[in-house]
Amino acid sequence: MNPSQPLLSVRGIVKRYGGLAASDGVDLDVATGEIHSIIGPNGAGKTTLVGQLSGEIRPDAGQILFDGRDITTVPTYRRSALGLARSFQVTSIFPRLTVLENVALAVQAHAGHSFVFWRPAAEEERLREPAREALARTGLERHASSIAATLAHGEQRRLEVAMAIATEPRLVLLDEPTAGMGPEETRQMVDLLHDLRRDTTILLVEHDMDVVFALSDRISVLVYGRVIATGSPEAIRANADVRDAYLGEEYADG
Amino acid sequence: MPKITPGTLGAVAAVALLLALPPILDLVGAPFYVDVATRIAIFAIAAVALDLVLGYGGMVSFGHAAFIGVGAYTVGILSTHASNGTLLFDGALPIGGTHSALIAWPLAVLASALVAFFIGLVSLRTRGVYFIMITLAFAQMIYFFFVSLETYGGDDGLSLWERSSLLGLDLYDSTVFYYLVIFILIAVLVFCRRLVGARFGRVIVGARENERRMNAIGFPTYRYKLVCFTISGAIAGLAGALLANQTEFVSPSLLHWTRSGELIVMVVLGGMGTLLGPVVGAIFFLLLEDVLSELTQHWMIIFGPLLILVVLFANRGLLGLLRRGTGNDTR
Amino acid sequence: MTAALFAEQVLNGLQLGVMLFLMAAGLTLVFGIMNLINLAHGSLYMMGAYLTATFQQATGSFFLGLLLALPATAVVAMLVELVALRQLYDRDHLDQVLATFGLILFFNELTRIIWGPSAYFLDVPEVLSGTVEVLPGIPYPAFRLAILLAGLAVAAFLFFLIARTRLGMLIRAGASNREMVSALGVDIRLLYTLVFGLGAALAALAGGMAGPILAVQVGMGESILILTFVVIVIGGIGSVHGALVAALLVGLVDTFGSVLLPAAAAEMAIYLLMALILVWRPSGLFPVNA
Questions:
Q1: Do C97 and B148 make contact, defined as CB atoms within 8 angstroms?
Q2: B164 vs chain C: nearest CA distance in angstroms?
Q3: CA separation for the pair C266, C260 (Å, rounded)
Q4: Where are the alpha helices (DSSP H) in A62-149?
Q5: Is there a domain that residue C157 lies in?
Q6: What is the pLDDT of residues B135-153, one digit of tens each?
Q7: How many CB contacts within 8 angstroms connect chain B with chain C?
């Protein structure tokens, strides 16, 4: 891997819905090892961008490169195999399976094929051991045998993250991991992400500015489907365009 | 390796009861019920097959009767050619018919698996209500195919001149045939039990629960669902092969769309997403059909509204009702 | 194929097409607005045919019989909606399939009890018993032509109703936003019942008109129901104009298939058409939630 080459590189992607361009030539580089946040007002096109990065939405134009490889048309499941994991803005887990089973499934997706018809998955240590590790990492180990639906909201959000990291991804795309959380739960999530950065690159889409400024190495600001600025938290704070477009009103509100 | 649990004990008791059924029926002077039990067991096999896609995979297939039909016709057609000594295919590599179960039954399984594969290939590209309608439509296509197949009786169907022959067993003996069917039912149950607990089953259940998430964590779910659908069709085809042998007659009515509906009723009635559920459902449905049709030839006028009531008020199935108190629910 | 035969087959295909459209329109509206998959829609078709037969015998006029059968079927359907189907709108599709499957069994048996097991054959009404020269040298049965024209008239009426009237506006709004319709002070439950009745009347019209060209018998609703499913799947569920296009397409393919292809292939033609279209567009030709 070329150290100077960005891990994820988005080149001018465009996605139109009718006359509206939800992505209007987005450019973005995420360097290996960094926590890179994307912020922007509602309607800036964050959800559409996440959809295109994860492979659920196909761009009308532009390119997405992952580790130098063009993945623009690569289906979702194969992006995961390449090392691009994600969490969902609205909690997306397997509610009727146990917490351990949730994570073990994520491990299973990356541990060879699953056309195995006879050997019980529950006895495959190869699946359970990494799953337990991911649970320990996210502070969920004592809930391992609980049904996922019974977890508190903050715990379910952490389960999301556990499923994303269980596959040892090279890039984790976290879509508003603190959505709907109280201050205490948010603090735990921040600690968790802080811990994660040791072994993976993180692309964080987040509303909570305190979280963003506490964690990010770099921030990109998305407005009307375009990245209007990218830089360190200090640079973004000082950027007049960003203030005009976004931060000013946000801070004025809060 | 197997642990002694209430479930294991229950299974052992159930198997013991199934094995003891023919002598018991003999004792109480109702040996003809062995045929009824055999028929129920055959439909139980088909219902278990459907449950694999419906209960575990969350795919509401309204076309499983087609796979039963393909399996039954495979046996029927091979048997006809064997009986009148004609060739199935002429040409460079002539192929004749056969009565041998060891050839005909695997071919029946293969044929229905192939049909299921191609139907699944198209249908699984869609979901929800589209999937229901499309599986129904394709099953209807197969139905009309056999209706228009004049060579093999068309609408009137096809009588088997002989039952299949298998390892010197007397398949004309009701009790022997019963034990064979029960053996196959248990084998199918054991296979499905392993399958749903293995990696493959976890993927199928995961796709039912949250397909989007499955894609995001790296599973090409379409492939797995297609294989699941194919396996299910194959097992239903095996049930069809058995049914053809029991009734010694195959006709398009085997594939009638109401059959597919009845299979769904069995699975839901017994309890989806469990393996015993469809078996219980098949027993209950076919016995109820027997009892109600004794009462009146218009039994459906009772059964129809009954079904609606069950859906409205007890949609977890019979096993669900039994288990509600115990919390012992695998769903 | 001669030009005359070709023209006749085109008309036959279109005539089957409009019948399918009458069925598909009701089914697709009910699905689009109430999110209900109603297998018993075919039973309403059958009901329409039987009631037309009965009323024709009572009044001596096919047209009067048909005219009476439409509201009668609609009333039966609305009663069923009130008693049973209403509970199913928020249930999953499997529950809906099972319950409406139960309804089919009920209606089929009820029909068998009331009208007996043997089929009825209705006479083509006197005025329409002849043929019409549609093109010079090409005669065509007047009754079939009347079906075609009636179907097209209903289609036009339906598009007008949906695009231009207050009821149509509510139907369109109901499909996209239940809360909004409720907020307008409209009783959404009443709206649902009315839509269901409308769909039933359309099905009854198709059934009644089919009476003189097909046998009126138990089970007649189910074969057309499955064809209707094919139409809806091809057209895109919830789309009325998709239903029209697909219905005519299926009508033509089915008719020409049975003329040009050997029996087994002819029976499979429309299903293969459906498969091809689905491979190309998995949500049908006119997907509603594009």
A1: no
A2: 28
A3: 8
A4: 76-82, 99-108, 125-137
A5: yes
A6: 988 998 899 889 888 788 7
A7: 127
Q: Is C223 left (phi over 0), alpha (psi -120 to 50) or beta?
A: alpha
Count of domains for chain C: 1
Residue at C280 is within a domain: no
Q: B215: distance to nearest CA of chain A, Å?
A: 5
Chain C touching partners, 3 or more CB pairs below 8 A? B
Residue range(s) defining the domain that contains residue C86: 3-219
Q: Of all residues in chain B, what percent carry a pLDDT higher than 90?
A: 40
Q: Does C285 touch chain B (CB under 8 A)?
A: no
State how far the Cα of C184 lies from the Cα of A157, in Å rounded to an integer.
38
Domains parsed from chain A with CATH numbers: 1-81+173-185+202-254 (3.40.50.300), 84-168 (3.40.50.300)
Q: What is the mean pLDDT of each run of 10 residues along chain C (290 residues)?
A: 81 91 90 86 94 90 91 94 87 89 92 88 81 79 89 90 80 66 73 90 92 87 89 87 92 89 81 86 75
Beta carbons of A174 and A53 less than 8 angstroms apart: no
Give per-residue pLDDT as tens, A18-75: 878 889 999 999 999 999 999 988 888 888 999 999 999 999 999 999 998 999 999 9
Say whether residue B249 is in contact with chain A using an 8 A CB cutoff: no
Closest chain B residue to C219 measured between Cα atoms?
Answer: B258
C229 neighbourhood in chain B, CB within 8 Å: 133-134, 136-137
Per-residue pLDDT, averaged over B60-69, amounts to 94
From C152's Cα to the closest Cα of chain B, the distance in A is 26
Q: How many CB pairs under 8 A join A and B?
A: 99
Residue among B198, B210, B215 whose CB faces A121 most closely: B198
Work out the average pLDDT over B116-130.
89
Looking at residue B203, its pLDDT comes to 94
Residue of B nearest to A50 (CA): B216
Number of other CB atoms surrounding residue A23 within 10 Å:
28
**Shortest distance, CA B49 to any CA of chain A (angstroms):** 15
CB contact under 8 Å between B137 and C226, yes or no, is yes
Q: Inter-chain contact C99–B312, Cβ cutoff 8 Å? A: yes
Q: Does B180 touch chain C (CB under 8 A)?
A: no
Contact B209 A101 (CB under 8 A): no
Q: Worst-scoring range by mean pLDDT, B49-58, B171-180, C37-46, C216-225?
A: B171-180
Question: H/E/C letters for each residue in A227-243?
Answer: EEEEECHHHHHHCHHHH
ipTM over 0.90: no
Contacts by residues C265-268 (CB-CB < 8 Å, ≥ 24 positions apart) = C266/B148, C267/B141, C267/B144, C267/B145, C267/B147, C267/B148, C268/B141, C268/B144, C268/B145
According to DSSP, the β-strands at A8-17 and B249-250 are: unpaired
Owner of token pair 């299903």: C271
Q: Which two tokens stand for residue C72?
A: 């009668």
Most confident of A223-232, B15-24, B145-154: A223-232
Q: How confident is the model at residue B315 (pLDDT cuts 50, 70, 90)?
A: low
The shortest CB-CB distance from C264 to any of B149, B301, B311 is to: B149
